[in-house]
Protein: ARM10 protein
Amino acid sequence: LQKLIHLLQATDDPLIQEQALITLSNSAAFSVNQDIIRNLDGLSVIGGMLSDSVPKVKEKALNALNNLSMNIKNQEEIQVYITQVCRNVESAPLNSDLQLAALRLLTNMSVTSDYHHKMINSIPCFLHLLSEGTERTQVQVLKVLVNLSANPAMTKHLLRAQV
Structure:
């Protein structure tokens, strides 16, 4: 895991980055690896890939963070990327794999109400995707919206959102 994280930092080759991110993502399916990746500063390295100009690299980074977000301590570190992930949802092509990967991460990050406030500005976008997206996109957006609606503090933001 340490070598994969170092490889991500050392290379600019998108194909190598994608493969390293896929391997880290698969490794994160095991809870013991989630802690190891966090302790190796892997979350910030993977999070840094969200700024990459290559959509496939961003998508693989989002998938890795999604798997890593199943851990509360990891969520505490991943939450700093929520605003950027929301921007990825808004700027990605409609119904793209990149958009769906970002929505999946937001679904996991919105299971508890701890980070809902970071998603408020994206509510109009979520509602737009609900009307314009394919069924896969709609289902993923609905998961985020259901999580947000479970928080009474979000009620006025959800009801006042302009679409």
